[in-house]
User: What shape does this take?
Amino acid sequence: MALPRKHRLSGKKEFEKVFKKGKTINSETLRIKFIPNHLNFSRFGIIVPLLVSKKATIRNKIKRRLGEAVRLNIGGIKTGYDVVIIVKPEILRKGRNETRKEILTGLIKIN
Assistant: This one.
């Protein structure tokens, strides 16, 4: 199951706003940028660049995994933020559980 539509960033302007004004948290496999959005819920965007893999199927698989990790733990994530998750190539060496732990650790740091 995918991340609900209301919890997704959509449109180039929303992503650009986060990139220009957002704060950054770096980890081994992820870079998380975030800004307050003054809503009662958080919205997320996931970027998997071509540097990670040239194959769209692999990039989409990574997006689905990260989206699922966010969806399952959305209750424990602080509300009121726009968050963009940028994936680094090192994610290919991590398993599903390691990736899930890393994304949750990064999202907890926002609090």
The chain has one domain: 5-110. The beta strands are 23-26, 30-36, 43-47, 81-87. The longest helix spans residues 56-72. Helices lie at 12-21, 56-72, 96-110.
